Amino acid sequence: MTESLPVRLNHDRLHDIQTAASFEATDSFSIALQNGDAPVHVHLHLDDALSAVASIPANNHFLDAESARQVDVEVEDGARPVEGRLKIVTGHGAETDYVTVSIVEPEEREDSVAVDVALADPPERDEDESGGGFEGARASLTENAPVAALGLFALAVAAGSATLSDSLAVLFGALAVLGSVVVAGYLLIR
Q1: If residue 74 lies in a helix (H) or strand (E), which one and from where to where?
Q2: 84 - beta bridge partners?
Q3: Which of 74, 77, 22, 86 is nearest to 49 (CA)?
Q4: Count of alpha carbons within 13 angstroms of residue 30, beta-carbon side
Q5: Whether residue 106 has a cis bond before it, omega within 30° of 0
Q6: How many helices (H) and strands (E) would you count in the chain?
Q7: pTM metric for this prediction
């Protein structure tokens, strides 16, 4: 959020409004209401030009004496620049003031880095680089040798358990381990 637009109320006299004649923002901003020694009702309104790109969640605000409130103005993405007027009304119409608000494009920073859109797409790889073919499978298998060894150990334990036990449940468990190892081996060399 860019900086705030300061608005002083009730400082010189009852319902008095003191603010800048113009304000510039690149994004959402806030209106910093600072009230003086008397309670006040404030109405904030964006003209049609500003309402096309910006909005204020609540237009009417009550401030106690010697209090402050921040009112956020949400600016949407869209065409820039946009210029319009913010209307500030106090005391149910007793005083009215206008601020010319300009919503502009943010300036290009010196320390910013331009990013090429082509970086979003990964480069295409040759068959040899991607590990395709027999040599790719052999390289993949040697990189995953510890996993393959653990799979073979699981097969040996499952086969030994199924052989030594006469239980049908142990046989189905051994077959499940066998199926899992086969699928894992296929995924490793794929």
Answers
A1: strand 68-75
A2: 101
A3: 86
A4: 11
A5: no
A6: 4, 10
A7: 0.56
Q: Which fold has domain 5-103?
A: Immunoglobulin-like (2.60.40)
Contact (Cβ atoms closer than 8 angstroms) between residue 35 and residue 67: yes
> What digits encode the pLDDT tens for the residues 66-91?
999 999 999 998 888 999 999 999 98
Answer yes or no: are the C-beta atoms of 70 and 53 closer than 8 Å.
Answer: no
Annotate 148-162 with DSSP letters as a single string. Answer: HHHHHHHHHHHHHHH
118 vs 128: CA distance, rounded Å: 23
Tens digit of each residue's pLDDT (9 = 90 or more) over 146-162: 777 887 888 888 888 87
CA distance 69 to 9: 11
CATH 2.60.40.10 domain position(s) in the chain = 5-103
* CA distances (Å), origin 144, targets 148, 172, 182: 6, 27, 14
